[in-house]
Amino acid sequence: RALRAYRQMQDDEVAPNVVTYNALLSAFEHGADLGMCRRLFRSMSVRKDTMTYAAFINCAGRAGRWQVALDTFGGMQRDSLDPDTQLYNTLITAISRTSPSRWQIAIELMREMQRNNVPRDTKTCIAVMRACEQAAKYEAAIDVFNTFPTEEVLHSADGNVGELLVHAQSELGRWEDTLKVLHKILPRSPPPHLYSLVLEVLSRERFLWDKCLELFNRMKGKSIPVELNAYNSVMQVHSGKGEWSRALELFDAMLQGGTQPDSRTYDILIAAYTRRREDQALAAVKKNGTVIEN
After folding, report:
1. How far apart are CA 7 and CA 151, in angstroms?
2. For residues 244 and 230, what is the distance between their CA atoms, to the nearest angstrom?
């Protein structure tokens, strides 16, 4: 449709302006049609602006051509344009989307923004942290987070920063730091999935089970909605501790609250039932004084 409109303009000898070109580039960008974007970009008879470059760089990223995106970004100087925050964010996202191994480039672009006094925002933080995490560089992701004003990025409208930070800390086993992050977010009603993520991490290790239950009780005390993954993690803990009745009570509460179980939920319940029957059988054997020899 965009191409037909462009060709009709040519047939009608209507000269497109930069706004028209940007709209066309954006249309091809969403389809990751880098070939068409490149032809249109090179054929422009009007001066390009930052939106023009942003559309082309994003298209290159969607097409998996991070080097093309980087080279195009460098060519902005020929048009005497200074990249702004949005353009840097677009380039960082394009690189991280197409080549996780290039996470160092994402960090260097963030540093370049600081050197050139280009403001960084929450989207910058998300883009660079995501580039690090996609390359499994969790320590680097945390270091990136620490270069931003903590309260500002954590309390932004976009909860992805907190999620990325929690995930990185969890992968490194820093569950205490993870809980500190939650404490900072608490005044702003943190996303329930952050709690779900931490609960899942705590449920993996037996020595952290009490912390898992403590955090879950804190959730309920704060009237924070409980997601399915949170229910599953806590049920897993109760099952592991031999608290079968509590696991089943939690399952009933989950259903009453309108949360639908998944396959993991049923796996946990089946394991709980099995272990309960084994314990009951063992208790009966002990009560009757029967000795079972190996």
Report:
1. 50
2. 17
